[in-house]
Amino acid sequence: MNEALKAGFALFVAGGVxxxxxxxxxxxxxxxASDREELQRFTxxxxxxxxxxxxxxxxxxxxxxxxxxxxxxxRFQDLVKDSSLQTGxxxxxxxxxxxxIFNKK
Length: 105
Hints:
The protein is built from five helices and no strands. It has helices spanning 3-22, 33-40, 47-60, 62-81, 95-103.
């Protein structure tokens, strides 16, 4: 894997921690253990370091990030209200949703 792709993947992996930090949850919990393991496969940088880089991106793109959060929250609430909902994984935002958010000026 080339270096640019590795760097992008590292930001992706650290994005959850960065999102928590963006919302004021600065403690990295045990749930991030799999993120740490994943990062070790691609970089020698720590989750803390990479999440700070990801946080800078979220801060610069705060309107888009807030829109993603808003849509995801609404879709989650809609799913929970659905009494016929089956256990499993459910998509909250699809590619078209994300493209709409990122292409909006």
